[in-house]
């Protein structure tokens, strides 16, 4: 019996060359030092991709990429289809994990100098995979085709519309027509399920092929420099001396990492569930606050914070410039030190990149530059900001509330964050300065001169002058020293000689 | 070509060379035929894929309904059916816009899209401002820039009144590349 089984195996191997294929791929020799916890992120990203393909295909059993029906099919997937919520959750969290782990992989490769000679193509194919993965993430959020997706696509079109000469054509190409509609969704669907995954598979093949031909980076030793003339022999010597087959000798940590990733995705799916669409894509429903998924929040923040005159240039050129730097990196920095312990610039670059992305993502999440559209009707006013005021000042409070000032100006943190908090405004600006600011606007504030009667302006400013901590005098005009404002006349005059 | 291959065996006296020349010829014919075939398939395929790139979308006249829907001195949200819509567009075929009836037969019709990055602006009648929920752009009642990052006033539609009915010319998503008016 065993003899027959053995013969069948040998026959299959003879016809299909399985053992040769194995020796050339999973069984290829890697430096023993690469069996490190730092080297698990690449395989973990690949695992996420495989999960995305499997769950994505299963979601496509039910999902209909049509503007009129996608919302209903997502609802059916989430609430009616048995285990549909589970597949949606796995796909959503799988994408988050994939983006996050991919950046960890990239960071590790950068810090360990793995992009240097002779692995330039490995690095470049990885950079293209990063773009494709982000493309999958962006097109994936459009698949929800909710309010965020609709207006998010609009943001993409508005950026395209800034391209000189062919902006309009690019907008039409991106949207599949002159406006966001079902053709837009179909187009993004084709990108999300055919074009981008197909490209990813092609690039992963190249990426892994390079791992096989040029080897995996040995764990760098501080002070051991890469030289083009000697590296290949050195690497061959390492493989000869301490090379181990990837399977089964160096794969153990990858396997453990893989299970942690799967457990993580399962945990998030079970605890947080899939991300639900936040309302059908109905453009007439304009009471909406469009926000992208978290991995694009930093771009959303950049679009709000860039100075006007740099915006178009940086929105269009920023991406290509970053890519150019990434592509050029292995050629500019081809040899030399690989260990991060002796590459302080590399370490600082990574820290800076993460801090900047982290802060921008936080700002994109909180969006302090956006008016709080409901604050004028819902933001409360503390009792201490009401009591003790004259009827005239209270009229000013009504103006402040009714004219939507609170949408941009918080009082003690309650309200919009776009403009300065008004809690102690009376100590910062004089009555005259406040009147000028209200009437003429400026410094990013609209002018209210023709929207308020003189009486309303007076009342509003009187109320704002009263907004100051107990016992503190109102702001004084520094250009007229020694002349206290009218309502400060009761205070003792300033001693002469004090500036 | 043929004459060359006929002569060659005499020159070198080897039959393999003749075969090789025939193979070269067939290879060239094969490559040539496939180049023609690839062009015959590829050009229409590229044309299809880039059709929206090549196609023009002229603005079309659209009715917003009777003028009485827009009382004088108000700014109201209206919507119209997009002339370039598909049957399966669902809600996305209905496009909103802001109609400002200034006086008598004087109107302004604004696109819903902020000129910064296209988010839907909201009208606040009390402060006479359009505010954008995305990056904090604000516009005055006549569409001019009030504050924030928008690089230009609100996009406006060309409008006219015919038999007490308000019309506009629309159908596209206005962007800086094609602001309609």
What features would you describe in this structure?
The complex is a heterodimer of chains A (499) and B (181). By secondary structure, chain A is mainly alpha-helical. Chain A is 60% helix and 2% strand. Chain A folds into 2 domains: 23-366, Cytochrome Bc1 Complex, Chain C; 375-479, Orthogonal Bundle (Cytochrome Bc1 Complex, Chain D, domain 2), CATH 1.10.760.10. In chain A, the strands form 2 sheets. In chain A, strands 1-3 form a two-stranded antiparallel sheet. Chain A has a two-stranded antiparallel sheet with strand order 2-4. Chain B folds into 2 domains: 2-52; 60-170, 3-layer Sandwich (Rieske Iron-sulfur Protein), CATH 2.102.10. Chain B is an alpha+beta fold. In chain B, helix 1 runs antiparallel to helix 2 (15-49). The radius of gyration of chain B is 31 Å and the shape is elongated. In chain B, strands 5-6-7-8 form a 4-stranded antiparallel β-sheet, with no helix packed on it. Classes of the chains: A mainly alpha (499), B alpha+beta (181). Chains A and B meet through helix 7, helix 8, helix 13, helix 14 and helix 18 of A and helix 3 and strand 3 of B.
């Amino acid at each position: 019996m065993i003899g027959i089984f053995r013969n069948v195996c040998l026959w299959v191997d003879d016809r299909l060359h399985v053992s040769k294929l194995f020796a050339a791929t999973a069984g290829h020799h890697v430096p023993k030092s690469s069996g490190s916890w730092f080297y698990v992120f690449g395989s973990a990203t690949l695992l996420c991709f495989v999960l995305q393909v499997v769950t994505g295909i299963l979601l496509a059993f039910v999902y209909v990429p049509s503007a009129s029906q996608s919302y209903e099919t997502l609802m059916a997937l989430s609430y009616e289809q048995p285990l549909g919520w589970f597949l949606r959750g796995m796909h959503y969290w799988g994408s988050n994990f994939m983006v996050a782990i991919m950046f960890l992989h990239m960071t590790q490769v950068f810090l360990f100098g793995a992009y240097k000679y002779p692995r330039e193509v490995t690095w470049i194919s990885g950079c293209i995979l990063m773009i494709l993965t982000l493309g999958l993430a962006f097109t994936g959020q459009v698949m929800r085709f909710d309010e965020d997706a609709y207006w998010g696509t609009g943001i993409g079109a508005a950026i395209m519309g800034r391209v000189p000469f062919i902006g309009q054509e690019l907008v039409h190409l991106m949207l599949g027509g002159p406006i966001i509609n079902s053709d837009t969704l179909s187009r993004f669907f084709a990108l999300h399920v055919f074009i981008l995954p197909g490209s990813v598979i092609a690039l992963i093949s190249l990426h892994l092929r390079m791992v096989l031909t040029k080897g995996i980076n040995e764990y760098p030793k501080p002070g051991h420099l890469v030289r083009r003339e000697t590296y290949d022999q050195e690497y061959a010597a390492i493989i000869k001396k301490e090379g181990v087959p990837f399977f089964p000798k160096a794969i153990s940590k990858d396997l453990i990492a893989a299970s942690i990733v799967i457990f993580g995705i399962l945990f998030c799916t079970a605890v947080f569930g899939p991300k639900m669409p936040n309302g059908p894509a109905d453009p007439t429903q304009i009471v909406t606050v469009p926000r992208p998924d978290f991995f694009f929040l930093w771009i959303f923040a950049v679009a709000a914070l860039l100075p006007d005159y740099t915006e178009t240039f940086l929105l269009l050129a920023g991406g290509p410039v970053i890519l150019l730097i990434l592509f050029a990196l292995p050629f500019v920095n081809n040899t030399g030190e690989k260990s991060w312990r002796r590459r302080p610039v590399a370490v600082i670059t990574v820290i800076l990149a993460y801090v900047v992305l982290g802060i921008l993502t936080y700002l994109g999440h909180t969006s302090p530059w956006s008016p709080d559209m409901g604050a004028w009707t819902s933001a409360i006013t503390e009792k201490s900001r009401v009591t003790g005021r004259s009827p005239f000042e209270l009229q000013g409070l009504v103006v402040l509330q009714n004219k939507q000032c609170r949408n941009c100006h918080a009082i003690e943190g309650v309200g919009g964050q776009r403009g300065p908090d008004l809690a102690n405004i009376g100590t910062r600006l004089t009555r005259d300065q406040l009147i000028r600011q209200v009437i003429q606007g400026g410094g990013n504030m609209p002018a209210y001169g023709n929207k308020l009667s003189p009486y309303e302006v007076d009342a509003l400013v009187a109320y704002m002058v009263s907004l100051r901590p107990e016992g503190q005098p109102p702001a004084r005009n520094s250009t007229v020293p020694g002349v206290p404002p009218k309502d400060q006349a009761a205070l003792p005059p300033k001693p002469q000689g004090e500036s | 070509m043929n004459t060359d291959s006929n002569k060659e065996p005499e020159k070198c006296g080897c039959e393999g060379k003749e075969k090789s020349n025939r193979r070269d010829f067939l290879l060239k014919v094969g490559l040539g035929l496939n180049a023609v075939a690839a062009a015959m398939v590829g050009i229409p395929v590229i044309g299809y894929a880039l059709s929206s790139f090549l196609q023009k979308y002229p603005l079309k006249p659209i009715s917003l309904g009777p003028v009485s829907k827009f009382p004088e001195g108000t700014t109201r949200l209206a919507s119209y059916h997009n002339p370039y819509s598909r049957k399966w567009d669902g809600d996305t075929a209905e496009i909103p816009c802001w109609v400002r009836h200034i006086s008598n037969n004087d109107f302004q019709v604004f696109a819903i899209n902020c000129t910064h990055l296209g988010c839907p602006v909201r009208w606040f009648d009390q402060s006479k401002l359009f505010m954008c929920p995305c990056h904090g752009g604000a516009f005055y009642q006549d569409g001019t820039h009030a504050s924030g990052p928008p690089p230009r006033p609100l996009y406006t539609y060309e409008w006219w009144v015919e038999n007490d009915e308000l019309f506009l010319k629309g159908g596209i998503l206005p962007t800086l590349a094609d602001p309609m008016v």
